[in-house]
């Protein structure tokens, strides 16, 4: 069945009084697979929202993200500050399933505008934190002599490099498959080289290609940072 139809039936059966509902995620895109679930953001006027629930409809897994307008804004603000917002992506890129008073269309348009504006830029301190992390991981990859350790170090370096490329480029970061998709969209050639380097480490133990990519990204944001890096404990911290 059509994912939009399944999602709409789910909302009508379960949330007949909902103010609005939006289908997000991969289900209604070219990335849809046989195992894709339905990510549905449902807007209610009050309790039991906010809550999140995993269920199913006609054998299709369904992820429900139920919010009031106030809880949606609260979580969207938190996610924006973290530069990773599943809620804004689901709403801004999704399909409006139900819209009682125009709230669904307004929410989708506002989310799209916030996505287009991009996440907050990195502060100088945050950029230093990322430079320090990459420097440390590059040194670990260069120095490791245990082939199993190499895999785990390369895994963390892969994610750190990908996230830094997105953040410095004013792009939203993400996790898992969406991190790959956003990196591939933002920097396709670097993405290809980074993946090749990672596979060389994992498959044959050759770390040189991945080190070249990581070092190039690091050089582009100010270079290595290790000796002299310092962070004081938060104000008011007590042992």
Question: What does the model show?
Answer:
- The model has no long low-confidence stretch (mean pLDDT about 95).
- The chain has helices at about 5-15, 70-80, 85-90, 105-115, 125-145, 145-170, 175-185, 190-205, 210-220; strands at about 20-25, 40-45, 50-55, 60-65, 95-100.
- A five-stranded mixed β-sheet has the order 3-4-2-1-5, with helices on both faces.
- α3 (about 85-90) packs across α4 (about 105-115), α5 (about 125-145) packs antiparallel against α9 (about 210-220) and α6 (about 145-170) packs across α7.
- It is an alpha+beta fold and about 240 residues long.
- Helix content is about 55%, strand content about 15%.
List the helices and strands and how they pair.
Layout: H1 3-14, E1 20-24, E2 38-43, E3 51-57, E4 60-67, H2 69-81, H3 86-92, E5 95-99, H4 103-117, H5 124-143, H6 147-168, H7 176-186, H8 188-204, H9 208-220
Helix pairs in contact: 3-4, 5-6, 5-9, 6-7, 6-8, 6-9, 7-8, 8-9
Tell me the strand order in the biggest sheet: 3-4-2-1-5
Order of SSEs: HEEEEHHEHHHHHH
In percent, how helical is the residue content?
40-55%
Low-confidence stretches: none
Number of strands: 5
User: What Rg, in angstroms, do the CA atoms define?
Assistant: 21 Å
Largest sheet: 5 strands, mixed
Count of individual helical segments: 9
- Cα shape: globular
Average pLDDT confidence is: 94
Beta-strand content: 5-15%
Label the structural class: alpha+beta
* Amino-to-carboxy terminus distance: 58 Å
């Amino acid at each position: 069945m059509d994912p939009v139809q399944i999602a709409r039936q789910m909302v009508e059966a379960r949330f007949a009084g909902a103010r609005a509902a939006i289908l997000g995620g991969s289900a209604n895109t070219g990335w849809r697979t046989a195992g894709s679930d339905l990510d549905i953001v449902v807007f209610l006027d009050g309790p039991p929202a906010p809550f999140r629930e995993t269920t199913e409809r006609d054998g299709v897994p369904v992820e429900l993200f139920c919010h009031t307008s106030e809880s949606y804004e609260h979580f969207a603000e938190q996610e924006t500050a973290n530069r990773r917002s599943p809620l804004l992506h689901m709403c801004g890129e999704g399909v409006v399933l139900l819209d009682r008073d125009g709230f669904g269309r307004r929410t989708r348009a506002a989310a799209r505008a916030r996505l287009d504006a991009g996440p907050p830029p990195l502060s100088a301190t945050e950029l230093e934190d990322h430079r320090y992390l990459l420097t440390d991981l590059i040194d670990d990859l260069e120095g490791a002599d245990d082939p199993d350790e190499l895999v785990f170090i390369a895994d963390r370096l892969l994610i750190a490099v990908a996230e830094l490329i997105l953040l410095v480029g004013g792009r939203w970061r993400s996790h898992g498959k969406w991190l790959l998709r956003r990196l591939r969209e933002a920097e396709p050639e670097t993405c290809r080289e980074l993946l090749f380097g990672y596979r060389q480490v994992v498959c044959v133990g050759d770390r040189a290609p991945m080190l070249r990519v990581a070092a190039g990204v690091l050089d582009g944001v100010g270079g290595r940072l290790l000796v002299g890096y310092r962070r004081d404990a938060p104000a008011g911290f007590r042992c």
